[in-house]
Design brief:
The protein has 7 helices and 7 strands; from the N terminus they run E-H-E-H-E-H-E-H-E-H-E-H-H-E. By secondary structure, the protein is α/β, with parallel strands linked by helices. The protein has a single domain, classed as Rossmann fold (3-Layer(aba) Sandwich), CATH 3.40.50. It is globular and about 45 Å long. Bound molecules: NADP nicotinamide-adenine-dinucleotide phosphate. NADP nicotinamide-adenine-dinucleotide phosphate binds next to helix 1. The site of NADP nicotinamide-adenine-dinucleotide phosphate (NAP) has 22 residues, from helix 1.
Amino acid sequence: MNSQKQTIIITGAIKRLGLHFTKKSLAMGYSVIMHYHSEISDDCYLLKDQFPGDIAFMQLDLVNNPEDLIIGSLNITDNIIGLVNNASIFAQGNLSNPSDFMEKFSINTLAPMRCSSAFYKHVKNGWIINITDANIKRPNSSFQNYRISKLFLEEITRQQAVIFAPDVRVNAIAPGAMLPAQHEKDFFTTLRDTVPLKSVGNIDSLINTYEFLVNNNYLTGQVISVDGGWGLL
Ligand SMILES: NC(=O)c1ccc[n+]([C@@H]2O[C@H](COP(=O)([O-])OP(=O)(O)OC[C@H]3O[C@@H](n4cnc5c(N)ncnc54)[C@H](OP(=O)(O)O)[C@@H]3O)[C@@H](O)[C@H]2O)c1
């Protein structure tokens, strides 16, 4: 890996929004450690060929010892500047199901919290961006555990921002409806008319916000909703 370039670690980097954060980071001149869980697609190998020396892949189930992500990354390069906690489980599941709660809490809350602590301890300087969700403010009938796991992550963002200052900035982006999961396509179509700015899937806005947070070194502890005003309703 190109040790001259500053490197960003991105969890869940090989698909969907994680891949957008990866491509933007590469375009901004960073190297990327692309964390993945299950398998790497051919498109990602192609991307690696297009950016020789700028990409390393790292497989890890974040449920156990998520700190290994940071330790393993430091074995690849010591020029690390950023961490994007993007990986998550988005699925239905309610408080009546404690094991589901623990699963969501483990990946959506504990894993980013522990990776961030390891980043602060071992990398020592830089920034962290947590990816939360703009649609978690109101109680929800069928995604209760997901919602609460992300609410915790927002609060951890603010808490760690204070603990890690002045060495590491910690912010969060709360996306609105960006990329539908399989079961959400019809919902996205209906939602377009409901969102105040009458738009869903505005990835450009999300990526612009990411660039803004990476570059703005006087911001910490902020959660920026990129949701067309959906969270205001
Ligand atoms: N898509 C949207 O419109 C939207 C809206 C609001 C918020 N968000 C947030 O934005 C982020 C990205 O969303 P997305 O829709 O692109 O996500 P996604 O398709 O749900 O992908 C999440 C990633 O997390 C990984 N992951 C799941 N369990 C894991 C585990 N145990 N260990 C390691 N990695 C694991 C998945 O890997 P595998 O698939 O290999 O398991 C996948 O790469 C998430 O934090 C999500 O909550 C997204």
